[in-house]
Design goal:
Elements lengths: L1 H31 L5 H37 L14 H6 L7 H21 L18
Helix pairs in contact: 1-2
């Protein structure tokens, strides 16, 4: 199975690189042909930001694919990095670059959500009514 997954990973990698190259060429062409008013420029800038966000996700996917190819090479492909058990073949068919089994990935995501929730709670604005805690000096 690792050999067939290797072929699938290499194909995914090739397609992703083609898409990235096409997007970069398109972005350059858009930049070179920019002439317009304020609203056109704002729209173009928003498109550019979206492009960079998407290309960031694509870079992450490319790194995950390269990492999976290294695991194929060293013989650890298909083993969960957390618990060491085999990742179910159906999961690998859907996401050939998966590092963790479903149970471990679920635990990781729950921990990340709790961490995020804790940070959001810590930095949430708390309404403190100043008037309720201040003593007023009416006799002055």
């Amino acid at each position: 199975m690792p050999e067939s997954m290797k072929k699938q990973l290499l194909k995914m990698r090739e397609e992703l690189l083609k898409d990235l190259n096409r997007d970069v060429r398109s972005e350059r062409n858009d930049f070179d042909s920019e002439v317009g008013d304020f609203y056109d420029n704002a729209d173009t800038e928003r498109g550019r930001q979206l492009f960079h966000l998407l290309s960031g996700r694509e870079r992450e996917k490319l790194n995950a694919i390269d990492d999976a190819l290294m695991r194929v090479k060293d013989g650890t492909y298909g083993l969960c990095e957390e618990c060491g058990k085999k990742i179910h073949k159906d999961r690998l068919k859907i996401m050939p670059f998966a590092k963790n089994c479903v149970a471990c990935q679920s635990d990781i995501e729950k921990q990340a959500a709790k961490m995020k929730e804790g940070l959001e709670e810590e930095f949430t604005y708390k309404d403190i009514s100043i008037g309720e805690t201040e003593d007023t000096d009416e006799g002055a």
